Amino acid sequence: MPKKLTSVETVPTLLQERLTLWGRCIRAQRLSRRITSPELAKRMNISRATLQRLERGDPGASATHYLRAFFVLGILDDIAPSPSATLWAEPAARRVVHPRGTADDDDF
User: Fold this and answer.
1) pLDDT, tens digit, for every residue of 35-87?
2) Architecture, CATH, for domain 8-81
3) Helices (DSSP H) in 7-108: which residue ranges?
């Protein structure tokens, strides 16, 4: 069965705007470095059609492909910096608490 592609209509506007901006960045950086689309696609180990989808900000393209493009172009840390440890460390104070005042492990 073929992979179901995400349509633009099902993606929140803010996310679609961000993907479009990422695509514009990929294209602008590729052109500023005078890298052809077939050459960048080869460096990324993807098809030229996939690269075209990335440059359009297609929501059906893999996040890995976007990140790989940023990495190959040398802009990964500018566009997608590593998250702060406070975002992935889960202190007990951040647990969901029911209105009755107790945390319930069965909720998740």
Assistant:
1) 999 999 999 999 999 999 999 999 999 999 999 999 999 999 999 999 888 88
2) Orthogonal Bundle (1.10)
3) 13-32, 37-44, 48-56, 63-73, 76-79, 85-88
Q: For residues 69 and 54, is the Cβ–Cβ distance under 8 A?
A: yes
Packing angle between helix 63-73 and helix 48-56, nearest 10 degrees? 90
Distance in angstroms (rounded) separating the CA atoms of residues 55 and 87: 29
Distance CA 33, CA 100 (A): 59
Long-range own/partner contacts, residues 69-76 (CB < 8 A, 24 or more apart) = 69/26, 69/40, 69/44, 70/22, 70/25, 70/26, 72/40, 72/43, 72/44, 73/26, 73/29, 73/30, 73/33, 73/40, 75/25, 75/29
∠ at Cα 31 (67, 42), nearest 5°?
55
Q: What pTM, to 2 d.p., does this model score?
A: 0.73
